Amino acid sequence: MIGNPFHVLATIDSTNNYAMGQVNAGPVADGSTWFALEQTAGKGQRGKQWLSAPGENIMLTTVLQPALTLNQQFMLSVAISLGAFDFFSKYAGEETRIKWSNDIYWRDRKAGGILIENVLRGNVWQYAIAGMGININTPKFPDHLINPVSLRQITGKSWDSLELAYDLCRCLDERYSRLHPAIFDQQLAEYKTNLYRLHEPALYKIHGDIFQGVIHDVLPDGRLCLEKGKEMLELGFGEVEFIFAN
């Protein structure tokens, strides 16, 4: 069960790094979770850092042992994304979306991100290290960040980040515990229903080329189907950049 056990760390470089160290040191129970009050070197997608004032936001990592094959790994990402979506939309409302592949958005602003790192033993997918950062109480973000938003900015209220972290674990576990090939189609359909910019013309960038495109689909292996003019592109992670208005 995600969040059982649940460990609270005062200060750590990165909850993903810490969880990875636990896995490398010996067996770790499925669902073991570490929550940090402070991160000094939080990890995001493509090497980006994710930092937060102490106790302000949710920074946690859960260690999972998915009963899936490696070619099904995107479906774990779908389940974790839906769990984070369920959690944030409960408090922020129906304008919450999942931005491909697994960011949490509110309107056109980023509320949280997910980073899943895999541990393989030969061809066996032994562990998934699922880290996430959710903006909860930040009142104002640095100017150099493009489009962040916190739950406090959305609702005008301050929140107990630790109590919300427990609720996030419950939402994640609800999705993870039902993850099975028999419902892959259903979960992927729900993921796409809540996908940011689905069927909406918007700006994207590939290899320096900025163009107007339309997202039409996400395939079971995670590739994004993006219409560019008369061409339909199938793109992997990191191959396209979403462009936002200033």
TrEMBL record:
Domain BPL/LPL catalytic: 1-180
Keyword Ligase: yes
A Pfam family hit: BPL_LplA_LipB
GO molecular function: biotin--[biotin carboxyl-carrier protein] ligase activity
Domain of life: Bacteria
Keywords, alphabetical: Ligase
Secreted in keyword set: no
PANTHER family named in the record: BIOTIN PROTEIN LIGASE, BIOTIN--PROTEIN LIGASE
UniProt name for this protein: Biotin--[acetyl-CoA-carboxylase] ligase
Species this protein is from: Chitinophaga chungangae
Lineage of source species: Bacteria, Pseudomonadati, Bacteroidota, Chitinophagia, Chitinophagales
